[in-house]
């Protein structure tokens, strides 16, 4: 019996992570890395909802002191989405490797591993990168069974409306061979009616940005119904215009036209770059092609739920490899400065141009940061949603 056990292969790190209890992922990761690469310290840091800090997960649901999400070695790993090796400062001979935790383009945080100096060779860093990816998938999956990692992301309590809105989101990023998406919401801890959603298939990407009327719990309930109706219609396999029609009927049946949701619906053909669009309200769409920035003018149709059985028509435009599309809700383009000018008319265009070379995640965040700077406050008066999509396109090889 002992001989048989000795001949059995050692379970992979990935299989051991999958087998562990959801609340024990951090301790399991620490044990595995200690045994396999001689790790002296392992820290899991999760990005907070505002993407402003990374919070070390210690004794869940508590966290250690947060570190900036965009500065220092940890922040560089998070922003660049590449491993960063922090060399010793003289007080210790160990190195710290900071590894991004990402699931299909959705940035969750950073895994920091302290190693002996002779253990930071490229092969070990590559193994750690693969381990961090496996851990990220398990952290994302664990959210179905435990609240611990969601609690660890919070610097303060969410309002009920914000809780509902965050649960609706597919993530804050998505990456495929044909495109990369980054998205941002503010105010992160009190958001009410803004939402973004996407779904991809073998040949298409569907992307929606919704701005529910009102504020607080009423706006959240309205948006929840709108997003649920759009998903239900999308999963029925019907056209984009019919998706809008069915969601419109669902909202009108519930609110009788007293509440409505402005929505932009986009459906990308991954082969051709043709985009079908329905503009049902206020979200605005911009395209950056090379050094040129333009607003894509779509036919403004009625918001969802304003009238009974509103017909919706699709329009089409085309994206080319290298194009960037930015969708902003009314909380961004409609925000007014003291002199009466809107953020969308001046500062938005300046911010879009200034962030052209940034990754979509950072560009989306920078647009909202520019809005905050424009008004001189970290707390916005209304919801602001930004979705940034870089179009790569499908090659003949793909």
From TrEMBL:
**Cross-referenced InterPro entries, in alphabetical order?**
Bact_Sigma-Reg, GAF-like_dom_sf, PPM-type-like_dom_sf, PPM-type_phosphatase-like_dom
Organism's domain of life? Bacteria
Question: Does the keyword Hydrolase feature in the UniProt annotation?
Answer: yes
Q: Please provide the record's keywords in A-Z order.
A: Hydrolase
List, as start-end ranges, the regions of compositional bias called Polar residues.
1-18
Give a Pfam family name: SpoIIE
Q: Where is the PPM-type phosphatase domain?
A: 176-391
Q: Outline the segment boundaries, as ranges, of region: Disordered.
A: 1-21
Q: What is this protein called?
A: Phosphatase
Organism, by scientific name, is Streptomyces asoensis
């Amino acid at each position: 019996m002992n001989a048989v056990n000795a001949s059995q292969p050692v379970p992979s790190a990935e299989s051991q992570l999958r087998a562990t209890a959801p609340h024990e992922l951090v301790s399991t990761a620490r044990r595995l890395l200690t045994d396999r690469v001689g790790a002296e310290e392992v820290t899991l840091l999760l990005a907070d909802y505002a993407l402003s800090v990374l919070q070390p997960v210690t004794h869940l649901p508590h966290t250690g002191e947060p570190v900036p999400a965009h500065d220092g070695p940890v922040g560089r790993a998070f922003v660049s989405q590449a491993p960063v090796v922090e060399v010793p400062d003289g007080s210790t001979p160990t190195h710290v490797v900071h590894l991004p935790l990402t699931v299909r383009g959705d940035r969750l945080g950073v895994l920091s591993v302290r190693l002996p100096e002779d253990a930071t060779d490229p092969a070990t860093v590559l193994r750690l990168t693969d381990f961090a990816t496996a851990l990220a998938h398990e952290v994302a999956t664990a959210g179905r069974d435990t609240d611990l990692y969601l609690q660890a992301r919070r610097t303060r309590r969410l309002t009920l409306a914000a809780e509902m809105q965050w649960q609706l989101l597919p993530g804050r990023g998505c990456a495929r061979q044909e495109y990369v998406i980054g998205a941002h919401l503010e105010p992160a801890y009190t958001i009410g009616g803004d939402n973004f959603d996407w779904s991809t298939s073998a040949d298409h990407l569907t992307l929606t940005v919704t701005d529910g009327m009102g504020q607080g719990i009423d706006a959240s309930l309205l948006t929840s119904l709108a997003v649920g109706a759009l998903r239900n219609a999308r999963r029925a396999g019907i056209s984009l215009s019919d998706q809008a029609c069915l969601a419109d009927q669902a909202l009108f049946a519930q609110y009788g036209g007293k509440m409505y949701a402005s929505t932009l619906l986009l459906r990308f053909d991954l082969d051709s770059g043709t985009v079908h669009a329905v503009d049902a309200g206020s979200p605005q769409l911009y395209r950056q092609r090379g050094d040129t920035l333009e607003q894509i003018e779509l036919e403004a149709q009625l918001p969802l739920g304003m009238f009974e059985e509103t017909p919706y028509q699709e329009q089409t435009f085309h994206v080319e490899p290298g194009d960037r599309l930015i969708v902003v809700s009314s909380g961004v383009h409609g925000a007014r400065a003291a002199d009466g000018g809107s953020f969308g008319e001046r500062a938005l265009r300046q911010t879009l141009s200034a962030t052209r070379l940034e990754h979509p995640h950072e560009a989306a965040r920078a647009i909202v940061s520019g809005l905050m700077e424009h008004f001189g406050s970290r707390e916005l008066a209304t919801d602001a949603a930004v979705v940034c999509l870089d179009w790569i396109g499908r090659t003949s090889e793909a």
